[in-house]
Design goal:
- There is one protein chain.
- The chain is an all-beta fold and 106 residues long.
- A hairpin with a 2-residue loop joins β3 and β4.
- The chain starts with a strand and ends in a 5-residue tail after the last strand.
Length: 106
């Protein structure tokens, strides 16, 4: 899928909050931080649970099941029990609209 998907108007997207964007076979977790807007896959690589049910602490999403942490700016694991990063997705702001793109099959 090469098309950009509208998420939310940037001026309606409060800092330190997130939105879920369903794709065909996964869900994106789109997070608004002071550093920018970032998108990762909403799946903990430790056991497949959803990250969006957890807490956001700084730029880290904390998995509610076992406490694994992921840096939403890079997808990198910052605390076990996960050891594999989560997939990140491109984000752009176009005419005040936050947009994401599924680049897995490019």
């Amino acid at each position: 899928m090469n098309d950009w998907i509208d998420v939310v108007k940037l001026d309606e997207f409060k800092l330190h909050t997130w939105r879920l964007i369903p794709l065909e076979d996964t869900t994106l977790l789109v997070v608004n931080l002071p550093q920018g807007v970032f998108a990762i896959e909403d799946i903990c690589t430790h056991d497949g649970g959803t990250l969006s049910d957890g807490d956001l602490e700084g730029c880290e999403m904390i998995c509610p099941r076992h406490g694994a942490r992921f840096d939403v700016t890079s997808g990198q694991v910052t605390a076990p029990p996960a050891y594999e990063s989560v997939k990140t997705f491109p984000v752009q702001i176009e005419n005040g609209m936050v947009q994401v793109r599924d680049d897995r099959f490019d």
